[in-house]
Amino acid sequence: MMKRTGTALSMTAAMLMVSTSISSAQDLAALEAAAKAEGMLTTIALPHDWCGYGEVIAGFKAKYPEITVNELNPDAGSADELEAIRANKDNKGPQAPDVIDVGFAFGPQAKSEGLIQPYKVSTWDSIPDNVKDPEGYWYGDYYGVLSFAVNTDIVKELPTDWSDLLKPEYANSVALAGDPRASNQAILGVQAAGMGMGAAAGAEAGEKGLEFFAELNKVGNFVPTIGKSGTLAQGQTPIVIWWDYNALSGRDALNGNPPVEVIVPQSGVLAGVYLQAISAYAPHPNAAKLWMEYLYSDEGQLGWLKGYCHPIRFNDLVANGKVPQEMLDALPPAESYEKAVFPTLEEQGAAKDVITSKWDSVVGANVQ
């Protein structure tokens, strides 16, 4: 049930239902009042152990105790989120999500289907242009980059770039965190290697990435095993090409047994981004907009960073001295992320087609 205070929303609050941006503190105060009048926010697919979402949600609740956060299906995938909007177009009850957090490809899809509505947060200008819809229908929220997780009990000289992985001291050491014929993380890892070899994102990087892994396999450095925390710790895959947030969380979970270093390569820094959007049929549109304002505030962005996902405003926060030193100390150097490249959907698709279709013939059918 929608919780309301009084019999009707104020004219200002009602106007905010169709507003697409916040331009002043006065507007934000009106939005807060309208959201509190609605009394609820319905989220979906936000597991508490992903990107620090547990603390992010708790922070929103603490700031706005008048708003109940109704969490749907924390383990849902991006496709499930869009289906939840479709299935509840005419439903204003608790099963209708107000907001979604989806993979990059799903933002444009949701817009084309009319499933989401535009809204530009007050920090809009600090979100990079290449990861937001210019009309405000969807916008990047956080990202990871492909990194090297290294078991330093075994690997004494740390690799700093993709080309280092070809050195003889890394024999039987390097693994992908998935099958590059099926795993998006592994496919992007191959594309990142191609970019590290000087190729542009897209089909060219796919070709160069395949050449790189063929050479890595030829010299005996590539391990045909899917890398994860267990294989890293056991020494079966002493170097794993992994999203940095997974690598950093894995490092913490191992707690020094063995010690692990997480390295962002000097080149080929490929970023994978997720997106936020508001349902076009949101039962609580003002609460949804207030949630977005919280997520894209310094406080919300730092909540994701605490969970090792780089918030989309990371470079802006660092430049303005907003990131606590202890957070920076737990991460690879901030300057490593200044080189992050966000391949377009077209570039990702082109690279994927090359890598999945040619992996067996170029690298080897018995690999992975």
UniProtKB/TrEMBL annotation:
Question: Could you tell me which Gene3D superfamilies the record lists for this protein?
Answer: Periplasmic binding protein-like II
MF GO annotations: thiamine binding; thiamine pyrophosphate binding
Q: Name one GO cellular component term.
A: outer membrane-bounded periplasmic space
Q: Where is the signal peptide?
A: 1-25
Q: Which SUPFAM superfamilies match?
A: Periplasmic binding protein-like II (SSF53850)
Asked whether the keyword Lipid metabolism is assigned, the reply is no
What's an example GO BP annotation here?
A: thiamine transport
Do the record's keywords include Signal?
yes
Q: What domain of life does the UniProt record list for this protein's source?
A: Bacteria
- Alphabetically ordered keywords of this record: Signal
What is this protein's name? ABC transporter substrate-binding protein
Q: Which organism is it from?
A: Aquibium carbonis
